[in-house]
Specification:
By secondary structure, the protein is an alpha/beta fold. It has helices spanning 8-27, 32-50, 55-62, 70-77, 121-126, 134-149, 167-171, 174-186, 202-206, 227-235, 241-248, 252-257, 276-294, 299-311, and strands at 84-85, 98-105, 108-115, 154-160, 192-201, 213-217, 221-223, 263-265. The relative contact order is 0.12.
């Protein structure tokens, strides 16, 4: 387990707790009372730290190297071997930063689509750090259309620092691909559930971010720009990233207060990276709950409500 700078107090107690368990196992000496005390102290320390997290600390947690990624969630919540990954946009190629395919939760088939980061240096380069090219968004749209054809609900997982910013991406129509996805998702005739599980940056997130239910995990963020980029534009360097994170109102709590998302998904104590299995169960329950709510709505009404949901964003009475 890797720890962030502000998590050092957690690391110290956790290491003591593990050592206590190891001593008990090797020596046979009863140390249950000491271990229980350390476990209680660990939980209290985590609660204390996580009850006063700053927006920048939330951003750091969203990028935690041990945090579960899209494929981790999909493979954990679907029935064994039911997930079938589909590839290619039928124009340019197969973008590894965007993954998708059919999978089952209980007896219901879903189309799962999401941005995928890598777990090590080689994998991160392979996945382009979760930053899709235009063909990634076109692949996502192709899969959404396929889901619509077979009347299967769509679930998207967002965890991206943004769409790929390279010249070649712009040459192949990055803006057009994202814009077309937003347009087409507005009129999809099947329920769409959007889950922001980590970073939700700019158009890179919006390209698969239009849905009937949009929820954020507690330690995720959603904004038009990252705190570092915002700081660079305004001050010429990254030194004011904490100040930018505060001003951008990018946390799940902020987004919910502004009525930009429908729900904040509670994470396990310490974050999704601390107890991933618990995070998987929570996400699975949420998907089932949302689908049951949305499946009862008539198709035409579903589209009207979805459009009105986005049309109303930013509107206020003077």
């Amino acid at each position: 387990m890797e720890y962030l700078d502000f998590e050092k107090p957690i690391q110290e107690i956790y290491d003591q707790y593990i050592n206590c368990l190891m001593i008990e196992k090797k020596s046979g000496v009863d140390m249950k009372e000491v271990c229980n005390q350390l476990q209680h102290k660990l939980e209290q320390t985590i609660k204390k730290l996580h009850s006063h997290l700053t927006p920048w600390q939330r951003v750091q947690l969203s990028r935690h190297p041990n945090r579960p990624y899209t494929l981790d969630y999909i493979l954990s919540i679907t029935k064994k071997e039911s997930f079938i990954e589909l590839h290619g946009d039928r124009h340019i190629g197969d973008d590894k930063a965007m993954i998708g395919g059919f999978g089952k939760i209980e007896d219901q088939t879903f189309m799962f689509i999401g941005t995928q980061k890598g777990k090590n240096t080689k994998d991160r380069q392979y996945r382009r750090f979760g930053m899709p090219n235009p063909e990634g968004y076109r692949k996502a749209l192709r899969l959404m259309k396929l889901a619509e054809k077979f009347r299967k609900p769509i679930v998207t997982f967002i965890d991206t620092p943004g769409a790929y910013p390279g010249i070649e991406a712009e040459e192949r129509g990055q803006g057009e691909a994202i814009g077309k996805n937003i347009y087409e998702m507005m009129c999809m005739k099947v329920p769409i559930i959007v889950l922001i599980i980590g970073e939700g940056a700019s158009g890179g997130a919006l390209g698969i971010g239009v849905g009937d239910k949009v929820s954020m995990m507690e330690n995720s963020w959603y904004s038009v720009i990252s705190p570092e980029s915002c700081s660079t534009i305004l001050w010429g360097n990254w030194k004011n990233k904490e100040k930018s994170a505060e001003a951008l109102k990018l946390t799940a709590e902020d987004m919910h207060k502004l009525n930009l998302i429908d729900d904040v998904i509670k994470e396990p104590l310490g974050g999704a990276h601390f107890r991933p299995e618990q995070a998987y169960r929570t996400i699975k329950k949420k998907i089932i709950k949302y689908y049951k709510e949305l499946s009862c709505i008539d198709t035409e009404e579903l589209i009207i409500v979805r459009k009105n949901k986005y049309i109303s964003i930013g509107v206020f009475n003077d």
